[in-house]
Amino acid sequence: MNDLPLFLRRYFQSLAGCAYFFAGGALRKKHRPLLYALSKHFGFEQETEDPRAKPTPTVPHVAAADVIRDDTAVTLSRIADVAGNITPTELMLIAAFVRQRQPAVCFEIGTFDGRTTENMSANQPEAGRCYTLDLPPEGADHAALPLASGDKTYIAKPASGARISAQAKAGRIVQLYGDSGTFDFAPYFGQVDLMFIDGSHSYEYVLSDTEAAWKMVKPGGLLLWHDYDSRWWPGVTRALNQLQGQDARFAAIRQIENTALCFMVR
Length: 266
Ligand SMILES: C[S@@+](CC[C@H](N)C(=O)[O-])C[C@H]1O[C@@H](n2cnc3c(N)ncnc32)[C@H](O)[C@@H]1O
Prior knowledge:
This protein is α/β, with parallel strands linked by helices and about 270 residues long. It is about 35% helix and about 15% strand. The protein has helices at about 5-20, 35-40, 65, 90-100, 115-125, 150-155, 165-170, 205-215, 235-245; strands spanning about 60, 105-110, 130-135, 175, 190-195, 215-225, 255, 260-265. It has an 8-stranded mixed β-sheet, with helices on both faces. Helix 4 (about 90-100) packs parallel to helix 5. The mean pLDDT is about 90. The structure holds S-adenosylmethionine. S-adenosylmethionine (SAM) binds near residues 112 and 133.
């Protein structure tokens, strides 16, 4: 054996990890994919594939420095994130896209508490409008397409847009309610300068929301998606891999390194 010390280190590290895993660690959600990997490795999972397994990301990535100009300064509020929000870094990057592109019309699918909506709006031009669509809790049981397991946690929030300021609610931000699978997007076709897709995380919804976005975003406008390459939302990764790799309209999709954000200029 060429490197006995390395082998022994890995052997004992794995042994310690397995002791923890089989003594109860496997009950933690973040460790569970290992069960599938192990049973597959030992030949027990030849026929079926775990639909929750994280697909390998295939969208090419770029550094934030390649897309955000160095002199871009943003306005940020509501910086601290809660479960369901994008990270503070992702918030800053979206705000920077808005600030440098100055979109008159933004459209978000998936309001949640409105933290991103508020920050997009704050970086738009004075006369800008930011539309944000959300599925209220009562819509969860009648969704037109399959939801991802995990979506209902965020659909079931007490109120959509709870972190949107009263001032923005009264003017620049327009809250819309409905299921993006059936919502009538026609009035927004060809009207949107920047679109953020962060609603349901199922494969079916990401494809459907992206089709709607394609019709809404003007040529030269920006599309953004969240939750790519996330272990919790394999449907997003599967849909964006497919769109970027197989649909010429979306070949320009790129992931921003060290984030779950993807984007492309239409
Ligand atoms: C992860 S949260 C969005 C987070 C938010 N964009 C942010 O940056 O903080 C997902 C949101 O999408 C909404 N949603 C889920 N399925 C939807 C659907 N079919 N149509 C519209 N909104 C949906 C949920 O109600 C929830 O508020």
